[in-house]
Each structure stands twice: as structure tokens, then as C-alpha cells.
Design a protein that fits this description.
The complex is a heterodimer of chains A (about 290) and B (about 200).
Chain A lengths: L1 H19 L2 H17 L7 H25 L1 H6 L7 H4 L4 H22 L1 H22 L6 H21 L4 H24 L1 H7 L4 H5 L1 H26 L3 H23 L3 H26 L1
Chain B lengths: L5 H21 L5 H24 L8 H21 L4 H21 L3 H27 L8 H21 L7 H25 L1
Classes of the chains: A mainly alpha (about 290), B mainly alpha (about 200).
Chain lengths: ~290, ~200
């Protein structure tokens, strides 16, 4: 009886922690890291390294996501979209969440350094850009903070590439840039959809500073440049023509939606561009993984 | 407007995956015009399936649907001609390009009867070709019997395309609800028959 009750408590706690790490976002960033590693076509891909990469990235990304939630808990509490997160709801205390986030981050970044100093440095850079530059320093000051959020988001794929390739190369930087440019699409769409929420929370966003029109244009442009960067990087990886064709077709679809959202801007079209951009990013990563296997 | 269901989304995802497979793997080693044509046909199917998954059947309300839907039979038939009857590829490419331009121009400049007739002529010709060419070539022994599947797909694309086009043109054969109910399954079966038929040819 007692064991069952403890088991239920642990399960409930883990459920709360799972919400704190934003599993979908973490999963997608983790996938980019794996794709980055596989893209290096490392002649000796061992399951041990692959598991270590997965583990260290998962811990580092999860940790920074939890710390991000700790820092933004006051903003989250003011917004309809985020007020149901564990911290505003009081399902977990600030101290507990901070200890969890810091612990996961230290474990993840530390593990990364044991695999390779350069890989560790890139993983740490991702953590630093996300927490210090984006979340703590710039998020409440400028709408342009998303660029730094984007740079942080582009680090897992660069880290994976660095671990496989042994150095930072132009393909890794382009892959990173593709993810970097995809992230504003994601954040700006939420900024548009939940404009009132963001206004209430006092966070400067593109729609509140530059207006909807400029935001639509920024989303379209970043989506298109992201797909171009991804295409060139895929070519640089040496992706076969068949897979490149699929990527080009998806890029054309993205371009078509981006142009439509600028010519006839609407929330619905904008949301579908955001969704398509996410599918595009997911498909690109899967194509890189499948192609290099 | 009928809301898109989970089953519809699964069927559309399967269509997208089959199309992606065909573009990536299924057309390797063919001539450049053939590859380009098949890529356009399966590419439109891939992107359209994804957009339908995201936006639901509302996406079909766009006036662009008629124009984009015409790309599938036109490019697929051009691919078949360039692969199996290359002697006619230049002439047919001219028909496909001019036919497509005629659909675009009439739709935006002279909407109404002229646009509908143009659409029926161009779409119908391409659909008929996809339907008959594989059957004829299989009967003549110039292709394996499995190629007939492409013809079956051609029949389906003809039915689906015309149903959608006439619905968009305001002269529907079936109600919008009925068309949207069968559309995801029709798209999957059609793509499946094309992929299977082309690999068995």
C-alpha cells in the first residue's frame, strides 16, 4: 500500500518535471543534435558515443529549459497560454525547479566536456546564450532578443556536428543558422497569436514594437532563408540527389506559404507557415539521419 | 465545412510519405525531364497533403487549388510520355505548358464558362493519357502488367481532380461534404497505385 502510494507520488512528480522540460521542444532540439552528429558521416559511429551525445544534450537542453521557466515564472503567470505551467500553478517550488534545472544543466554540460572539450564548449555556449543572454539579460529589454534565443537553439546541431567532425566547419555553421532562423518563426508566430498576452506581461515583441506587417515579413524571410541555409548545408553534407529533391520540394512549399502569408496576411496562414516550417525542420533532420545511416 | 479527422490526417500523412519516397528513391536513374516531371507531380501531392493536414479542408477553398491541382496530371502525364514515348515529349511538353498557362489565364481573366471548358479539356486530356497509356503499353507488351496500376491511379486522379475542380468552379457533381469525406482515401490509393505501378512497370 505504502509502496504504491510512494510510486504514485514519484510518477506525479516526474509528470510535473516532464512538463518543466517542454518535452516536444527538447525532443526536436535533441533530434537536431543527432542529425548534426550523423551529418559528419563519422567513420566510427559507436552506440556509446551516440548514447552519450543523446544523454548529454538531453540533460543540458532540459536543464536550460527548466531554468528558463524559473526565470520567466512571473511572465508565465500573466499569460493565458502559459499560466498552466507547473511554476505559476505552484505544482513545484521555485527552489525545487531551480535545483532541478541547475542539476540537469551541470550534469549535461559536464558530461559534454568529458566527451570532447570543443563539444562541451559548444553545449555550454548554447546554455549560456539561452539563460544568460536571452532569458535573463535581453528578453525583457528588446524584441531582438529572439536572435539570441535562435543562436542558443542552433547550438545543439552545431554541437552534434562538432562531436562527429572534430571541428567547427561551414556546414555545421549553416546547419546551425538554419535552426537559428527557424526559431524566430516559432517565437514570432506565438508573439502574433498571443499579442494581448505578451502586452499584458510587458515583454517587448516584434508585433508590439514594429507591428504585424513587419512581423509577417520577418517570419516569411526567416523561413525562406532557413530553408536556403538547410539546402546548402544538405548539399555540403553530400546528401544524395533523391533526398535533396525532397528537401527542395519542401522548400518550395515553405516559400509558397511564406509568400502567401506576406501577400495576404492572416493569422491562419501565419500559423500554417509556422507549422509547415516545423514540419520542414523535422523532415530535414530526418532526411539527414536517414541519408547518413 | 467538414472538419478534418484523425483518420483523414493519418491517410494524408501516408500519402505524403509515399510521395516523398517516390521523389527520393522511386525515380532514380531516369532522364532529367522525366525526373523533373515526376518530382513536380509527387511534390505537389507531398506539399498538398501536408498543407491539408495543417489547415484542414479549408485549404481547398483557396482559388489556387484548381490551378495547383492541374499540375499533378499534367506533370505526371508528361513524365510518362518522356519515359515511354520520348518521340512525343517535346510536343506534349508544349501542350502541358500551354495548357497550364491557359488554365491560369482563363481562371483569372475570364472566369466562368471559358475557364471551366479550358480546365475540363486540359485536365481531361492529361487524365485520359495517364489512364490509357499504361494499359495500352501493358497490352502491347512494352511494359509489365503491373504498369496498369498507374492507369487505375490515372482514373482516380481524373475523378478526384474533376470533382474538386468543378466544386471550386461552382458546378459540383457531388456535395462538398461527400467529396471531402472520400478525398484523403482517394489521394492515398491514387498515390499508392502510381508508386506501385511505376515500380512494377
Amino acid at each position: 500500500m505504502m509502496i504504491r502510494s510512494i510510486g504514485q507520488k514519484v510518477r506525479r512528480r516526474l509528470g510535473v518535471y516532464w512538463k518543466l522540460i517542454k518535452s516536444l521542444q527538447t525532443g526536436l532540439l535533441l533530434l537536431t543534435g543527432l542529425a548534426g552528429y550523423m551529418s559528419a558521416r563519422c567513420p566510427v559511429i559507436t552506440w556509446r558515443t551516440l548514447l552519450a551525445l543523446t544523454g548529454s544534450l538531453f540533460l543540458a537542453i532540459s536543464g536550460s529549459t527548466v531554468l528558463n521557466m524559473v526565470s520567466d515564472r512571473d511572465i508565465d503567470a500573466k499569460m493565458k497560454r502559459t499560466c498552466n505551467r507547473p511554476l505559476p500553478l505552484g505544482q513545484v517550488s521555485v527552489t525545487e525547479a531551480f535545483v532541478l534545472g541547475a542539476g540537469l544543466s551541470v550534469l549535461g554540460v559536464g558530461w559534454a566536456f568529458t566527451l570532447s572539450p570543443l563539444y562541451g564548449t559548444v553545449v555550454f555556449a548554447g546554455f549560456f546564450f539561452d539563460i544568460v543572454i536571452y532569458t535573463i539579460w535581453l528578453k525583457r529589454r528588446t524584441a531582438w532578443s529572439i536572435v539570441w534565443g535562435g543562436i542558443a537553439g542552433g547550438m545543439p546541431i552545431l554541437a552534434g556536428r562538432v562531436l562527429g567532425f572534430g571541428q567547427i566547419d561551414w556546414v555545421g555553421l549553416l546547419l546551425s543558422m538554419a535552426v537559428l532562423l527557424w526559431i524566430p518563426t516559432h517565437i514570432l508566430t506565438f508573439n502574433l497569436r498571443h499579442k494581448a498576452d505578451y502586452r499584458r506581461s510587458g515583454v517587448p515583441t516584434f508585433p508590439s514594437v514594429y507591428g504585424d506587417r513587419v512581423t509577417h515579413l520577418a517570419i516569411a524571410l526567416s523561413s525562406v532563408i532557413a530553408s536556403v541555409a538547410m539546402g546548402i548545408a544538405a548539399y555540403g553534407i553530400g546528401m544524395t540527389l533523391g533526398y535533396l529533391r525532397v528537401l527542395i520540394v519542401l522548400s518550395i512549399g515553405l516559400f509558397f506559404l511564406a509568400v502567401s502569408s506576406v501577400v495576404r496576411p492572416s493569422m491562419k496562414l501565419n500559423f500554417s507557415l509556422f507549422k509547415f516550417a516545423s514540419i520542414y525542420m523535422l523532415s530535414s533532420m530526418l532526411l539527414v539521419l536517414v541519408e547518413t545511416m | 465545412m467538414r472538419k478534418i479527422s484523425v483518420l483523414d490526417r493519418i491517410l494524408l500523412l501516408a500519402t505524403a510519405l509515399l510521395s516523398a519516397y517516390q521523389i527520393a528513391v522511386g525515380i532514380e536513374g531516369l532522364g532529367s525531364l522525366t525526373v523533373t516531371s515526376y518530382t513536380i507531380a509527387f511534390g505537389v501531392l507531398l506539399v498538398a497533403s501536408l498543407i491539408l493536414i495543417i489547415l484542414g479542408f479549408e485549404a481547398l477553398e483557396s482559388p489556387l487549388v484548381v490551378v495547383i491541382a492541374a499540375l499533378i496530371p499534367l506533370s505526371l502525364s508528361l513524365g510518362l510520355i518522356s519515359q515511354y514515348v520520348p518521340a512525343y515529349q517535346v510536343g506534349y511538353m508544349a501542350f502541358a505548358v500551354l495548357g497550364f498557362l491557359a488554365i491560369v489565364v482563363t481562371r483569372y481573366l475570364t472566369p466562368g464558362r471559358t475557364a471551366t471548358i479550358t480546365l475540363a479539356l486540359v485536365h481531361g486530356t492529361a487524365g485520359l493519357l495517364i489512364f490509357t497509356l499504361p494499359i495500352v503499353l501493358s497490352l502491347q507488351g512494352k511494359a509489365r502488367p503491373g504498369f496498369v496500376l498507374v492507369g487505375i491511379g490515372g482514373g482516380l486522379i481524373g475523378i478526384g481532380g474533376l470533382l474538386l475542380s468543378f466544386l471550386r468552379a461552382g458546378r459540383p457533381f457531388l456535395s462538398a461534404k461527400a467529396i471531402y469525406t472520400v478525398l484523403p482515401a482517394l489521394l492515398l490509393i491514387m498515390t499508392g497505385t502510381f508508386v506501385a505501378g511505376l515500380s512494377l512497370a
